Structures are given as C-alpha cells and as structure tokens.
Amino acid sequence: MLDVMYFAWVRERIGEPRERVETDAATVEELVEELKAREPRYEAAFADLSALRVALDQELADFDAPLAGVREVAFFPPMTGG
Amino acid sequence: MPVVRVQSEPFSLGDEAEAFAKGRTDAGGLVTFTGVVRDTGGLARMEIEHYPGMTEKAIAGMVDTAMARWDLADALVIHRHGTLAPGDRIMMVATASRHRVAAFEAAEFLMDYLKSRAPFWKKEFGPDGAAWVAAKDEDEDALSRW
C-alpha cells in the first residue's frame, strides 16, 4: 500500500489531496500508468509528465525510480516558492 | 544554530533581523533578504500551498549545504504559507558570515533553491479569476550557477 499525495493543480484535477493505493507497480511510471487507466481525472492530471514532479518519501525523484520500500509518493507541478 | 520556520502567521522583519543580529560577535556581515507579494495588476490575494514535512526537510537540506559551502556563522529561513495579500511578506532569508561576500552568496543560493526546490505552490486570485503561478525557466536556470 502506498500513500499517494497530490498538490496544487494536480490535486485539483484529481479532486483529493491524498489516497491509499494498492499497487504492484515497480516504478513511478508504472504507478502513473495504473492510475491513468482508472478514470479520466487521472488521465487529465498525468497527461504531460514533463509538467510534473514526483517525490518519494519526501525526496525529489525521477519517474523511472523504483518504488520498492517507498511509503509515500507525491505528485505536483514545478515548485514556485520564494 | 540555523533556524528554519514554515508558518502561516505573519512575521516582523524588524524583530527577526534584530534577533538574528543580537549579541553576535562571530560575524562581520549580516545579509537579509525579504520576499514581498507583488501586485501584478489587480491581485486580490495569493494562496500558498506546501507539502508539510517535505518543506521543512528540503529547506533544512539547503541550509546545511549553504553552511558547509560558505563560511557561515548562522542562517535563518522563514517562509509563509496560506493566504497573503499584496504587500505582505512571504519569506525572509538571513545569513551571517565573517565576510560579506559569503553572506551575500549564501543568501542568493538559498533564494534560488527556495524558488525551485522547496515544495511551495502559489495560486493568484485576481479580476480574471484564479490561476496557479507557473514556474519560470529562468528560476530553474538560476540553479546552474551553483
């Protein structure tokens, strides 16, 4: 089980800030494909991965990163702090 | 000891700068930078979302890097989230060093990283509705100089 979190417009497109996901996905990309196959709102949120960033257990990661041992996955647009 | 604070409450620039400077004999130069909400044309308010937990960790990591890379005696980062209005202070960075060049450079490094690597997202509310602020290529490019 993974805790999957969404922020900013990704959260708005998916319609919730977090959910528990049962998955056997080996990588972030595989998780994204599983989610996109579920419902159109995921398809809308994940349409352009180049516009998204991912963090695994609160550390920035790449979309081809493995999910083994990961508890928390977060998807969000590029950050706009400062 | 470096301090990182992520908070919704306003902060007093004067009080923070004074507290950072007080009693300090280990640094000949203190730099403070303050970020202010700019009215880009009818901006009513801005909402800043963040990722509790990751935000504090990410900023602490940047501060550790700055402390190791420059000869810093101390550093302070305050960043707000929640609802802000034009003129409100969003964030501040303070650095203390024996020499001013290190204090200025470390403050700029922290600013560049806060813009693009701390998990904050700004949404602006204006006359044409609400829109998420898009990240700028130049902000990402700014990281390459470090």
Structure explained in plain terms:
The complex is a heterodimer of chains A (about 80) and B (about 150). Chain A is an alpha+beta fold and about 80 residues long. Chain A has a single domain (about 1-75), classed as Ubiquitin-like (UB roll). Chain A has helices at about 10-15, 30-40, 40-45; strands spanning about 1-5, 20, 55, 60, 70-75. In chain A, a hairpin with a 2-residue loop joins strand 3 (about 55) and strand 4. The model of chain A has no long low-confidence stretch (mean pLDDT about 95). Chain B is α+β, with helices and mostly antiparallel strands and about 150 residues long. Chain B has a single domain, classed as Molybdopterin biosynthesis MoaE subunit (Aldehyde Oxidoreductase, domain 3), CATH 3.90.1170.40. In chain B, the strands form two sheets. A four-stranded mixed beta sheet of chain B has the order 1-4-6-2, with helices on both faces. A four-stranded antiparallel beta sheet of chain B has the order 5-3-7-8, with no helix packed on it. Chain B starts with a strand and ends with a helix. The chains are: A alpha+beta (about 80), B alpha+beta (about 150). The interface of A and B includes residues 74 and 81 of A.
